[in-house]
Amino acid sequence: xGQVGILALQGAFAKHGEALxxxxxxxxxxxxxxxxxxxxxxxIPGGESTTMTRLLRTEGWWPQLKAFAEQHPVMGTxxxxxxxxxxxxxxxxRVAPLGVLDVTVDRNAYGRQTESxxxxxxxxxxxxxxxxQGVFIRAPRVTACGPGVAVVARLGDEPVAVRQGGWLGxxxxxxxxxxxxxxxxxxxxx
Length: 190
Fold this sequence. Notes:
Elements: E1 4-7, H1 13-22, E2 27-30, E3 41-44, H2 49-59, H3 62-71, E4 74-77, H4 79-84, E5 85-88, E6 101-106, E7 117-123, E8 132-136, E9 141-145, E10 150-155, E11 158-164, E12 167-170, H5 181-189
Parallel strand pairs: 1-2, 1-3, 3-4, 4-12, 5-6
Antiparallel strand pairs: 6-9, 7-8, 7-10, 10-11, 11-12
């Protein structure tokens, strides 16, 4: 495996770097379209999907990011899941999803910042062992999955981690937990 890129427009990108450091994986920050040439997979962190879209449009490299995402493994967490999605439950012209992961998401569906929470998640990625403690901050909800999408983790009956080929979308923030199993899963399985 080559180097992992972490989209560093805004959001908790540094925490993803810390997780990759713990796993001994080479990584770099991706701040321009040219930076994509040096990576073979990408992490799109949480943050704010309208801000990410605005910055990508302002800098003019949304098309290059979309082309990269169509051909490479990408993990998106929280706002990153929104950016990977095929559609938004309530279309918003300020957000331009990349359309690679065949899911529909509802932005901020788990509540406002003050309603953030942490909860144990059951996962099919590693059915044995301790549940993964998901951290949900203004998290999106997956409202529909296409036929090629596998649900990897659930919060109750709701999908909160989904995978389609090399794309992994998480409604929560694994980088804030110190538990690197989802980062390892992305590196090994996607």
